[in-house]
Sequence to fold (220 residues):
Amino acid sequence: MNKETRLEMLTRLRDENPEPTTELNFSSPFELLIAVLLSAQATDVGVNKATDKLYPVANTPQAILDLGLEGLKSYIKTIGLFNTKAENTIKTCQMLVDLHGGEVPENRAALEALPGVGRKTANVVLNTAFGWLKDNEGKYFLAVDTHIYRLANRTKYAPGKTVDQVEANIIKLTPRKTEFMFNLHHWFILHGRYVCTAKKPKCGSCIIEDLCDFKDKVSD
Ligand code: SF4
Fold:
């Protein structure tokens, strides 16, 4: 894929969905942080089902601490790996209360220091909750999940053998236009989730089919 093709691909994804966002339900940075923490190896739909019941009852670090570990588990037990996620959520809430006045820090290092929060979760929170394009060092960043990794490799938009390579290549190869840098994350996730699916991509109804370099395209 060359520069012009990448630009055309982003332009089509933009025209199809000018203001993409996460499908996780949230109304504050804290709600997004916990939803992303819960979403590892789980679907957004499954996480939303749980948080739609949890957040009306507890949507601050202190309120979740007040629920206690077992109380929290009762809300999230339908989500995979809920035992570990509940423990990490409680520890994260405790750190937010102890170190950050009960607020989510707008800082990558502080976010990544929270239990259960890795680079990807920190990137999603910085991008989606706080509107960041660049990190504390002034470098562009991107949260690469399984959908973004697959789409970048299949289309040859920015191939890479690891998520870090894909992140670096996407940042290197994406045209420097704010809306592209800001929205690519959600465009790729949504396209990967609904069209370029892992097992049977819907190439016959894909709006970037003629731009995509995947060798094993599947007609619908
Ligand atoms: S043409 Fe097929 S493989 Fe390429 S992006 Fe579209 S769905 Fe994915």
